[in-house]
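Reader question, answered in our methods column.
A reader sent in the components of a multi-part assembly and asked whether the whole thing could be modeled at once rather than chain by chain. We filled in our standard form and ran it. Here is what they sent:
COMPLEX SIZE: two components
ENTRIES:
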Amino acid sequence: VPGTSAYVIWLLGALAEASVLVCSWRKGSLRKYLALNVYMLVCILVSAIRFCVLVSYGFGSREYAYCYYYSDVFLTIGLYFALTSLYAHVLEEMAAEKTIRLGAIVLLLGTAAFSFAIVMQSGPRIVGRFFVEVSQNLNFVGLVLTYVLWGAVFKLRETRTQLIQLVLSLGLYFSLVTASFALRNLYPPLHSVLQNLYPVIGCLFPLSWAYAFWRVPGDARLAPARLAVVPR
Amino acid sequence: MSRKLTVVAAMAILVASMGLKVAVAAHSDLTPVASVGSAPPPKEPWRVGSAPPPREPWRTASVPSSPWK
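And here is the structure of the entire assembly that came back:
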């Protein structure tokens, strides 16, 4: 049964998600980053549904477990498409929207097929296992995609500060989740500690986006590094 | 970028991601959970509510005594 601290972190997480929407709306970035804002709105709705199910059926119930993991797949796919929209922002000058869409769908279908192939070998209750497997695999795909996007930001010399901050936050989030997951697997005694770390990471991530929308102006640009003068 | 190249790039990213997952989860058989959001994570659905398996029926019944006893 979750303690008071877990409920407080959950509430703070929902408030952080709402703050992303508010900050983005107040700073006029709601339409510009529509996919990110829709994702945050869905996060708030899912939090509300999860809370209702938790109160109605209890933490140890099968209903809450299914609600949690099924909605988790939904959110992970939402985050995946939010990440794809960041690709569209970074590569907008190349007019590669169709290519990005095709790549995203192929990658999503590939991940689902790979997850299904794994689950087929794991025994009974395939549907539940499939949803959890897809969610986990998409997290790793998201991590690699974010680092690739990071590379594109460097290579294309992207200077939009807000966009860079959003990509960096996402990279940090995926990296933290993967690092805690790796630690959990390497040191099983840390399982309970690290299991409680996921909600904290999930709470900090929307805060970093809210900060990016609130503190960084939409038209802010990073100053390019000074050119080195090489004496001849 | 051609369609073929896009599909190849997507597959390369998938292979890299799954390789990373295997590398990270290689030392344990724990079910990895990397969830989105700040709600407290429950046990995996297939581990919730599953009652402990009973003894095999042929071990539950008492053995009848032999008729000559």
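What stands out: Chain A touches chain B through 67 residues (CB under 8 Å). The mean pLDDT of chain A is 87.
Send us your own complexes using the same form.
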